[in-house]
Amino acid sequence: MDPWNVERRDEAMKSLLTLQQRLVPDVIETMKGRFRILRQMYDMQPVGRRTLAQVMDTTERILRGEVDFLKDQGLVAVDSSGMRLTPLGESLLDALGEVMGILDGRADLERELRRVLGLRAVRVVSGDVDENPEVKGDLGFTAARFLREVLRRGDVVAVTGGTTVAAVAARMPPVHPGNILVVPARGGVGERVEYQANTIAADLAERLRAEYLLFHVPDRLSEEAYRSLAGEPQIAEKLHLIRQASIVVHGIGQAIAMARRRRLPPEEIAVLEERGAVGEAFGYYFDQDGRIVYQQHTLGLGLGDISGMRAVIAVAGGRGKAGAIAAVAKAVAPHMLVTDEGAAWEILARYKGCGDQGEGAKTAEIHEIS
Q: N or C: which terminal CB in the chain sees fewer CB atoms within 10 Å?
């Protein structure tokens, strides 16, 4: 089925679940319970039964019965290192994730968010990453599953830095389409190593058994340094490869927080505040209407590069990022937005009925950060 046509898929699944609930009422609760076990096991695998029982606040006896059933169905494997999902179990977990979204009403929330932001596809995971950091794993899990659906042999996949995109790489199921190249979307020297785009590209490539490219240039450059580096043959060659990307997975930052993280001078942060910057992606800073109000000198992908890509996947969550997510969604118009309930409800509260529905990047007076 077309991975983009989520509305038709959700409606068909909702009809089936309604019939099941009427015919066999207790099957839904059983399914929810087993989904929780599979989901928690996936995050912790390999994991022992006692540890899993403690985390799930249940008894070993109850858990043993459920695990035995899942094992008999070929969904779980048990060895000396602990319990883990089989490939069949991982596939079922993917399918059940969509079912759970329909059962708890998130499918309706996704539909409304698509309408308000004017996006093609949205997935909303349970919870709020601002209140529960473990939700970041669910964001990564969901985005990774969608990436797997759209990935094709010969693709060049670009990734940005950040903790949420790192979670996507960490939860990418092992798939091997063949002849894949993973590249950092832009430079990132100066950030924590584990959250740099280079590190994430290498991690994702390992999961995909793919090749990867490293791009060791600072995230923030002066105009002189930008021109000098861009003219270097080795840098230009790598930039050419990065701009061949057909898929990009990117995070979304809060404008002022990102500016401070990149150690922008106070006077430049003051300009961002004056211009109402709320969101950041790819070195661009956007106001609440999705207009570019600041642009940073950076080597890597820009908005012009991503406009022709086959799949642009944005992933970010947390109620505190609602304004940033909405602003970047309007500017970048990703094909898929993966977010959480905290951000989704806050976005609807702020933007529903305002009439701004994904018009794309509108450029106000642009200032370049030198």
A: N
Q: Which CATH number covers residue 42?
A: 1.10.10.10
Q: Would you state the structure tokens that stand for residue 220, as one six-digit string?
A: 């923030």
Number of domains in the chain: 2
Q: In whole angstroms, what is the distance from residue 300 CA to residue 42 CA?
A: 34
The answer on pLDDT for 106 being more than 90 is no
Task: Report the C-alpha gap between 95 and 295 in whole angstroms.
Answer: 40
Cis before 46? omega within 30: yes
Q: Please give the average per-residue pLDDT across 255-260, as a whole number.
A: 94
Last residue of a domain, one of 103, 121, 137: 103
User: What's the pLDDT tens digit per position in 309-329?
Assistant: 999 999 999 999 999 999 999
Return the closest-CA partner of residue 47 out of 78, 68, 69: 78
- Higher-scoring residue by pLDDT: 8, 265: 265
Judged against a pLDDT cut of 80, whether residue 147 lies above it is answered with: yes
Sheet (strand 247-250) strand order = 121-125, 336-340, 311-315, 247-250, 156-159, 181-184, 211-212
Task: State how far the Cα of 288 lies from the Cα of 106, in Å rounded to an integer.
Answer: 25
- State which of 74, 103, 132 marks the end of a domain: 103
- How many angstroms separate the CA atoms of 128 and 134, rounded? 9
Identity of the residue numbered 338? V
Structural domain contains residue 1: no
Residue 168 token pair: 């996507």
CA dist., res. 6 & res. 121, Å (int): 7
Q: Which of 226, 60, 41, 283 is nearest to 141 (CA)?
A: 41
For the stretch 311-336, what's the b/e string if a residue is b when 16 or more beta carbons lie within 10 angstroms of its beta carbon? bbbbbbbbbebbbbbbbbbbbbbbbb
Percent of all residues in the chain with a pLDDT value above 90, rounded to a whole number:
63
Task: Give residues with Cβ within 8 angstroms of 325, minimum separation 6.
Answer: 252, 279, 314, 316, 337, 339, 343, 347
Q: Can you tell me whether residue 193 is helix, strand or coil?
A: helix
- State the Cα angle at 244 between 241 and 248, rounded to 5°: 110
